[in-house]
Amino acid sequence: MIARRLPRIFLALGLALALSPGALAQSAYPNRPVKILVGFTPGTAPDLAARILADRFSEVWGTPFVVEDVPGAGSNVATERVAKAAADGTTLLMGGNPSLVINPSLYEKLPFDPVRDFAPISQVFIAANVLAVPVESPVKSVAELVALAKAQPGKLSYAHAGVGTSQHLGAELFKYMARLDIAAVPYRGSTALMPDLLAGRVNMSFANIVNVLPLAREGKLRALAITSRKRSALAPELPTMAESGFPGFEAVPWFGLLAPAGTPQDIVDKLHTETVKTLALPEVRRKFEELGLEPIGNTPAEFAAAIRKETPEWAKVIKDAGIRLGN
Question: Are 139 and 158 in contact (CB under 8 A)?
Answer without folding.
Answer: no
